[in-house]
Design brief:
Bound molecules: adenosine monophosphate, magnesium ion
Oligomer: single chain
Number of strands: 12
Shape: globular
Helix content: 40-55%
Order of helices and strands: EEHHHEEEEEEHEEHHHEEHHHHHHHHHHH
Structural class: alpha+beta
């Protein structure tokens, strides 16, 4: 049944008061709707027409709090670029509450950019229009690509300026998440040696995300293993589409396994395992190819926090947690190797097939071939006729691709598959459209400089169907021209 306003059913707000601050969003001067995500509203059981109307707009802007909402700013800590920050928390966001969607899944509804909280640490609690649009576009693109992620329900303008390096229009993003519980949420209580809170948080997180862990002999250990498995799968999915999160701090690592907190994130154009875009990532800590190592490092911080719940004997707890962490590289490798093989139409991921896939990646890296276009072009390179031109022309040395493609076709010939099926299968795992940085920047510039949201709408439309050819949208598939190239992305504040 579809109700007008969201039907909240809050559980996190039932936890002890030290888990959060009860805080209403700060009203804004002149709310104006930029966009609502109608299919997502339907999924949440919220009437999209209500949400787009004056009552919905007031809620999305933070000017009105619906009856059953219990707005809170959540407490968390985190390791930022490797250094512990004992208190972070929602400094510019409030969780309005939880909604059980039409599929029975529990989802957080959060406003981001909704004003100061107890955790603002000198920040203004607000968000600029640019970062709000970036998160909207990229999170929705990720969802359409089939990658676990928080979702964008709506974006509104506040009618107020926020001051960054210059005044920019303020905005609020309404987003949903399986939950906003982060590795840093566990660290927050571990640092305070608040084992009672850790136990409550772990029980809550298990019930919500990994209920089967409750049946295990050691639920906290089973929970750690489940989070690790979800992270291994997630990071593999990122890397298979060329995604760089950019700021994989432990406070930006959701224990649900969803991608969260889109700041200086980027998709690669030319393939480069060392690619870094974030302007604040000087050492390349969060480079494309470092992401699995960092995920494991973040999981080690979760493991440390959970130790007192794993076993009373610390040495035993450490040994058990270490064994779980040590499985991570193997799990990740298995996921990504299977993925690389699928991207070249090899279903099994045997040693020889993985080597073949890695050989293509090596060629791409040496010649900075466009990541997305190369894989997409393989569907047309299957037969080796003139249609293979598109793929080979992406390489500075096309003959090096020809040599690889000859080996690839030999391997495919040994498998029995209909070429049309094979091409269709390739197109289902190799997107044509990704949110390329220069397109995202163009969307932001048009909106911020000219209040023109046309490019935003068009880009969202294209990215909603990333695996379809979409004739007439060819320019959205293309990498930037040299003068369009974006070499740096900036943080989400
Ligand atoms: P982020 O880098 O966006 O993941 O944010 C890191 C921390 O800084 C979180 O605790 C945020 O809530 C906080 N923060 C970021 N921007 C602001 C802001 N404009 N005002 C207050 N807190 C902020
Ligand atoms: Mg964050």
């Amino acid at each position: 049944m579809k109700s007008a306003a969201p039907a909240f059913d809050n559980t996190f707000a039932r936890l002890p008061e030290r888990f959060f601050e009860r805080r209403k969003p700060a009203p804004v001067a002149a709310p104006r709707l930029i966009r609502i995500n109608r299919p997502l509203a339907e999924e949440l059981g919220i009437d999209p027409d209500w949400l787009a109307g004056p009552e919905g707009l007031a809620v999305l802007a933070g000017n009105d709090v619906p009856e059953a909402a219990e707005p809170i700013a959540q407490a968390y800590a985190g390791h930022q670029f490797g250094a512990l920050v004992p208190q972070l928390g929602d400094g510019r966001a409030v969780l309005l509450g939880e909604i059980v969607d039409v599929h029975g899944r529990r989802r957080d509804l959060q406003l981001k950019g909704s004003g100061r909280t107890a955790f603002s640490r000198g920040g203004d609690g607000r968000a600029g229009l640019g970062p709000v649009l970036r998160e909207y576009v990229v999170s929705e693109a990720m969802a359409a690509l089939g990658i676990p992620t928080t979702r964008a329900l709506a974006a509104v303008m506040t009618g107020e300026a926020v001051f960054r390096d210059r005044p920019v229009p303020g905005a609020v993003l309404a987003r949903t998440a399986a939950s906003h519980i982060r590795v840093g949420t566990f660290e927050y209580f571990a640092i305070r040696r608040d084992v009672a809170a850790l136990r409550l948080l772990t029980d809550h997180a298990i019930a919500r995300h990994y209920p089967e862990a409750a049946q295990a002999e050691r639920p906290a250990l089973a929970f750690l293993a489940s989070v690790a498995a979800a992270q291994a799968a997630l990071i593999a999915k990122w890397m298979l589409v060329g995604f760089i999160h950019g700021v994989m701090n432990t406070d930006n690592t959701a224990i649900s396994g969803e991608t969260i907190d889109y700041g200086p994130c980027a998709f690669m154009d030319g393939y480069d395992p060392g690619a870094v875009f974030s302007s604040i990532d000087h050492g390349g800590r969060y480079a494309y190819g470092n992401q699995p190592r960092i995920a494991q490092w973040n999981l080690a911080r979760l493991a440390e926090a959970l130790l007192p719940l794993i076993d009373h004997d610390q040495d035993r707890a450490v040994a058990l947690a270490t064994a779980v962490l040590e499985e991570f590289p193997r799990r990740f490798e298995a996921a990504i190797e299977a993925g690389w093989c699928r991207k070249i139409a090899l279903p099994e991921a045997t040693g020889a097939d993985v080597a073949l896939a890695l050989d293509l990646l090596r060629l791409m890296a040496e010649q900075r071939a466009d990541f997305t276009l190369t894989f997409r072009a393989l569907g047309d390179a299957l037969t080796g006729k003139a249609s293979g031109e598109a793929a080979r022309n992406l390489f500075d040395d096309p003959e090096s691709f020809d040599a690889w493609a000859a080996r690839w076709r030999d391997r495919l010939a040994a498998l029995d598959a209909d070429p049309a099926d094979r091409r269709a299968a390739l197109h289902k795992v190799n997107p044509r459209f990704i949110p390329r940085n220069h397109r995202v920047e163009a969307v932001i510039t048009a909106a911020v400089e000219r209040e023109d949201f046309g490019p935003f709408e068009t880009l969202l439309g294209v990215l909603a169907r990333p695996y379809d050819d979409q004739p007439g949208r060819d320019e959205y598939a293309l990498p930037p021209r040299p003068e369009e190239r974006v070499t740096q992305t900036f943080c989400g504040t």
